[in-house]
C-alpha cells in the first residue's frame, strides 16, 4: 500500500461525483483522488494509467457500464501489481443490489450517506492493509474479483425469451434478406453498432446488439469468450496460452484467432 | 388421473365449461314455463286441473331448452350473444320451439294417457300460437341477456385495459432509477447550493404533479405541455450537466393549442434514455411546434446514439406505442406519427394532427 492511498472515481453525473468527493474527504482525509471520470472507457484507461488503490465505479455510465468497465480493467490489468479495491456506486439497481448482497464486493447506494460510507472506507482500508506484495496472492485476489464480476454481469443479463433457441439469423444482403442457419455461424463479433456474423465462407452484418442476441442462443452450443465475441463451441479447434497467461482460440473454418478474456478463461480447463 | 388428461371433443368441452351457465338457463326456463302455465290456466282452461297446463308447459320448456342450449354449443356460438350467428341461429331457434312443442306435448300426453291431437282444430291452433309466441319471447330474452352480458364484459375489459395503460405510463415516468438519481442529486445540492436545490425541488414537484395528474385530465394547452417538458429536461440537466443541451421552440401563436396531456413526454424520455444517456459526449434534444395550414406538427429530435445503439434494459418501445395510441384516440386516423432514424445517429419523431382554429 502506498503511503498515501489514491482513488479513482467514475461517475457520469457531475453533482454526484462532487458529492462523493466531498463525503470521501470527510470520511477518509488521507485518500487522494487521482482522477474523476464520467464514462466507462475513460475509467478503464485512467485506471490503467494511474494504478489507483481504490476504484469507485458508478454502475450506470455511458459507453461501458461500471460492471463492464471493471471486467475490462481486470482483463487488461498487468500481473504483478495488486488489483485495486473495487467499490460500486449505484442509485437503484435491483440486480446489482441482489448480487452484491450475495457476494462480498462492497457497494454504496446513492445518495452517499456519511455513516454508510464510513463502513465502506474501513472495509477498503482493511483490504488494503491485508494486501501482501506476494504475486501468487495477487493472482488469487484477481481471480476472486473475476468470479464476483462474472456473477454480477450474469445477474444483469436479460432473461432468455421463451420459444427455444434461435435457429436462423436473418441478414439483409442488398435489398433481400438471407436466412443464415445458426449452425453455420462460426462466431459473432460486436462491431460498433453492428454485430458481425461469420460463417466458414461469408461475413454478414446484423443490427441486433450482441447483448440481445446472446440470450437467444443455445448456451451449450455458443460460449461468450470476450465482451464482444461469442463463438460456436464445436468450431473451436485449440486453445493457446501465451507467456502472459492469456488465452486465445484457433478455429475450424476461419483463420482468425480469438482472444479469450480473463473473465471467461474459466471455461477452458483441461479435463 | 388418466381421465383428466384425455382430450375431450371440442363440442363436449364447450358444454362442460358452460354447464353451470346452462343449469342457470334451465332454472330460468322452468320459471318461465311455470309462469306460462299459470297464464294458460287462468285464461283458457280453468275447468281442467292446474296440473294439466303445468306438465305440458314444463315438458315443452325442457325439450326446447335441451335442443337450443345443447344445440348452440354444438353449432359454435358467437361470442357476442352466446347464440349461433345468422341463419343457423334462427333455424336452431325454430327447431327448438317446434321440436319442443311436438316432443313436449307427446311426453305430457304419455304422462296423462291421452292424445292432444284429438282436440278440435281451433283448440290446437290456440295452443300452437300460444306456445310459439311464448317460445319466441323466451328465446328473445335469452338472446338479449347473452348479448348484454357480452357487452358488459367488453366494457369491463376496456376499462381494465385503460387502467392498465395509465398505470404503465405512471410506472415508466416514475421509474425508480430516475427518481432515486434525482433525489441523490437533490441531496447533494442541499449541502452545496440550497438555492439550486430549491429550484430543483420545485421542478420535481411540478413534474410529479403533472405525471400523476395526466391520467385525470385529457387535454392541456401546448404551452403547459412545453412547461412540463422544461421541468423534466431541467431535472435531467442537473443530473447530466453539460452533457445535455436542449431547445424548446414554441411559437407564441400556438401556445393555446390543446394537446393530450404529456403527449410528448415519452418521446423526450426515449431521447434521453436511449439516445443521450448512453452517448459518452452527450448531445442535444430539440422539441419544436409548427403550424402547416390546418395541421399542427410537433417534433422531437435528438443527436444521440440512434436506435442501432445499445439499449439499456427496459427499452421495449412502450413509449412509442403509447404516443401512437393516444394520438389515434384523440384525433382518429387523420393523425400521423413518423419515426426517422438518420444513418449518422440520432432520432426524429414527427407528430402531425389537425390544429384547432
UniProtKB/TrEMBL annotation, chain A:
InterPro entries on file: CheY-like_superfamily, LytR-like, LytTR_DNA-bd_dom, Sig_transdc_resp-reg_receiver
Question: Domain named HTH LytTR-type: which ranges?
Answer: 173-271
Q: Which residues form the Response regulatory domain?
A: 6-125
Q: Name one GO molecular function term.
A: phosphorelay response regulator activity
Stored Pfam families: LytTR (PF04397), Response_reg (PF00072)
- Heme recorded as keyword: no
Q: Which residues carry this modification: 4-aspartylphosphate?
A: 58
Keywords of this entry: DNA-binding, Phosphoprotein
Q: Which SUPFAM superfamilies match?
A: CheY-like
**Would you tell me the protein name for this molecule?**
LytTR family DNA-binding domain-containing protein
- What species does this protein belong to? Variovorax terrae
Q: What is the lineage of its organism?
A: Bacteria, Pseudomonadati, Pseudomonadota, Betaproteobacteria, Burkholderiales
TrEMBL record, chain B:
Entry's Pfam families? HATPase_c, His_kinase
* Domain Histidine kinase/HSP90-like ATPase, first and last residues per copy: 262-356
Q: Keywords of this protein's UniProt record, alphabetized? A: Kinase, Membrane, Transferase, Transmembrane, Transmembrane helix
MF terms from GO for this chain are: phosphorelay sensor kinase activity
Which sequence ranges are marked TM in the entry?
23-42, 54-75, 87-114, 126-143
Could you tell me which InterPro entries the record lists for this protein?
Bact_2-comp_sensor_kinase, HATPase_C_sf, HATPase_dom, Sig_transdc_His_kin_internal
Query: Which Gene3D superfamilies does this UniProt record tie to the protein?
Result: Histidine kinase-like ATPase, C-terminal domain
Residue ranges of every copy of the Signal transduction histidine kinase internal region domain listed in the record: 165-244
Q: Which GO terms describe its cellular component?
A: membrane
Q: What is this protein called?
A: Histidine kinase
